[in-house]
Specification:
The chain is α/β, with parallel strands linked by helices. The protein has a domain of about 150 residues: Rossmann fold (3-Layer(aba) Sandwich). It contains 8 helices and 7 strands, in the order E-E-E-E-H-H-E-H-H-H-H-E-H-E-H. Strands 1-2-3-5-4-6-7 form a 7-stranded mixed beta sheet, with helices on both faces. A hairpin with a 5-residue loop joins strand 2 and strand 3. The longest helix has 15 residues. The radius of gyration is 17 Å and the shape is globular. The chain starts with about 20 loop residues before the first strand and ends in an 11-residue tail after the last helix. Keywords: GTP-binding, Hydrolase, Metal-binding, Nucleotide-binding, Riboflavin biosynthesis, Zinc. Catalyzes the conversion of GTP to 2,5-diamino-6-ribosylamino-4(3H)-pyrimidinone 5'-phosphate (DARP), formate and pyrophosphate. This is GTP cyclohydrolase-2. Its cofactor is Zn(2+). One of its GO terms (biological process) is riboflavin biosynthetic process.
Length: about 220
C-alpha cells in the first residue's frame, strides 16, 4: 500500500533499450561512511549534461528497488545550506539504502528545479526580499518546476532496474514517473533536514507544490 493513500496508476513493465543519445560510463567504487556504493555515469548527448547513478547491491530482477530520484543542489548537497532540505534528503537516502543493502539513487543535473545554479541564486535573492520559492521562479520567468525526467527510464533500463519503491514527498514526481513509463510500486515518505531556516520553504512546497509532509508549520 502506498503511504498516505497516494493513488498510483501502476504501469506494467515494458521492454526498452537505452536511449541512443545517452552514453553509459561503467561504475567505479564510491566508499562512503555508510557503505561502499557503485558510481555510474551517463552523458546526455543531446545537451552534454552528465548525470550519475549511485547503486548498492543487486538491483536487477523483479523485486522493486528502494530508490530516490535526486536533482542536483550544489548549495544543499555540497555547501551545507539550510535554505532547503536537499542535502539532508540525499544523505538520508544513502543511509536508508545502506541499511537495506540494495538500492539506487539517480543524481540528475537539474539545479534549482531545472532553472540552473545562477538563476537559483537570483531566486534566492528575491526570496531574501520576501518572495517564496514559487513567486521567485515566476518573477524570473520560470514555471514552478522546470525539471525533465525523460532520462530516468533509460538510465534505469541500463542499470537493470524494473520497478521502484520511490523515496519522495512529491506527488508531481510520482506523476512524472508514470508519464515516463517508470513502474513505481510504493511511495516511501522521505522527510529529512527540517530546520528554522527552511520552515517557510517547506510550507510553500506543501501549499503550492503539493508536497506531503507529516507536519508543516503554518506561515
Amino acid at each position: 500500500m502506498n503511504a498516505l493513500d497516494v493513488p498510483l496508476n501502476l504501469l506494467p513493465e515494458t521492454e526498452a533499450s537505452t536511449a541512443p543519445n545517452l552514453e553509459y560510463i561503467p561504475p567505479c567504487d564510491l566508499p562512503t561512511p555508510w557503505a561502499k556504493f557503485a558510481l555510474h555515469g551517463f552523458i546526455d548527448q543531446a545537451d552534454g549534461k552528465e548525470h550519475l547513478a549511485i547503486t548498492l547491491g543487486d538491483i536487477t530482477g523483479e523485486v522493486p528497488v528502494l530508490a530516490r530520484i535526486h536533482s542536483e543542489c550544489l548549495t544543499g548537497d555540497a555547501l551545507f545550506s539550510q535554505r532547503c532540505d536537499c542535502g539532508a534528503q540525499l544523505e538520508a537516502a544513502m543511509q536508508r539504502i545502506a541499511k537495506e543493502g540494495r538500492g539506487v539513487i539517480l543524481y540528475l543535473r537539474q539545479e534549482g528545479r531545472g532553472i540552473g545554479l545562477v538563476n537559483k541564486l537570483r531566486a534566492y535573492r528575491l526570496q531574501d526580499g520576501g518572495m517564496d520559492t514559487v513567486q521567485a521562479n515566476h518573477a524570473l520567468g520560470f514555471g514552478d518546476d522546470e525539471r525533465d525526467y525523460r532520462l530516468v527510464k533509460p538510465m534505469l533500463v541500463q542499470l537493470g532496474v524494473t520497478s521502484l519503491r520511490l523515496m519522495t514527498n512529491n506527488p508531481r514526481k510520482l506523476r512524472a514517473m508514470q508519464e515516463a513509463g517508470v513502474p513505481v510500486t510504493e511511495r516511501v515518505p522521505h522527510e529529512a533536514g527540517r530546520n528554522a531556516a527552511n520552515e517557510q520553504y517547506l510550507a510553500t512546497k506543501a501549499a503550492k507544490l503539493e508536497h506531503m509532509f507529516a507536519q508543516t508549520k503554518e506561515s
